[in-house]
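EI: anyone free to look at a 255-residue chain?
SC: sure, send it
EI:
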Amino acid sequence: MNNRFAIVNPSEDFVLPPPRLIIYGQPKIGKTTFGSQAPNPIFIQTEDGAAGVQVPKIPETPCETWEELVTCLRTIGKEDHDRKTVVLDTVDRAEKLSQEWVLKNIFKGDQDKYMAYYKGPMLAGEKMSEMLNLLDRIRSRRNMNIILISHDGLQKGPSTLGDDFKKLGGNVSGYAWTRLRDWADQIGHCTMDFRVVDATAMKAGKAKRVGKQRWIYFEGEPGRDAGCRVGYELPARIELNWSQYQEAMGDRING
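SC: here you go
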């Protein structure tokens, strides 16, 4: 029997597990298309953003409850198949299902009790860990790449030197985003380049798009959450298409 607590040297035949990637960005920028180009994908639908994409989907129509989402994850983890990538589209809708489950099962549909001291949203954020644990089992047992898709939203950026600030992140609660951010190997922000015009000291400027190229930013900064864990490093930004991601990853992905 292996001793998990033994002091041993790293194995020479160590293989990096497939990546756990979260991408977020504005609607219709190409996040679903990116996921559909991954090796042998299967989509777990929580909304119908992939309705026009011809890829295997489970279920055939979007999940309506948290229990259905869990069933999809367990099915992918247990049944025989040839899929190499699981794509959850979208994680923000998955959190809505967790919130509905908590409201119904913990607070018996009482919205006031659900919102009291934010207990309901906190428990719903914690419940997202159940989904992440099931995804980890899929990666471990099936050696599958994991892609989570989210719309963009604002997250709190804490500062010990002044006032807190807002930065771009997934369109989920802070309770859920903390868990998602800590779990992911890579977080990418999908966007186009913009510049601000007509700004004055008394008037906010307007954002104007610069070109048509779409990018994934993997380098974090005060205005956005992004980054890569050691072993999964990527350039600061790449074009938003799978071929560019695969080229940058090399043999660190399955397929």
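EI: The chain has a mean pLDDT of 90.
SC: 👍
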